[in-house]
Amino acid sequence: MAEFNGGGHWHLDAVFYQVYVRGFKDSSRDGNGDLRGLIEKLDYIESLGVSCLWLMPIFPSPLRDDGYDVSDFLEIDPSIGSLADFQQLTEAAHQRDLRVITDLVISHTSDQHHWFQKARQGPDSPFFSYYVWSDSDDRYQEAQVIFSDTEHSNWAWDHQAKRYYWHRFFSHQPDLNYDHLPVQEAILDVMRFWLDLGIDGFRVDAVPYLFEREGTNCENLPETHAFCRRMRRLIDGEYPGRILLAEANQWPDDLVAYFGAGDEFHMAFNFPLMPRLFLALRREDNRPLIDCIETLPAIPADCQWATFLRNHDELTLEMVTDADRDYLTSEYARDPRMMLNVGIRRRLAPLLDHDRRRIELLYSLLLSLPGAPVIYYGDEIGMGDNIYLGDRNGVRTPMQWSDDRNAGFSSADPSRLYKPVLTDPLDNYQTVNVAAQLRSPASLLHWLRHQLRLRSSQPVFSRGEIRFVQVSCRSIVAFTRSHRGTTALLVHNLAATVQPVHLELEAYAGLRPVHFSGNHGFPQIQAAPYFLNLAPYESLWFLLEPA
Ligand code: GLC
Question: Is-catalytic flag, 504?
Answer without folding.
Answer: no
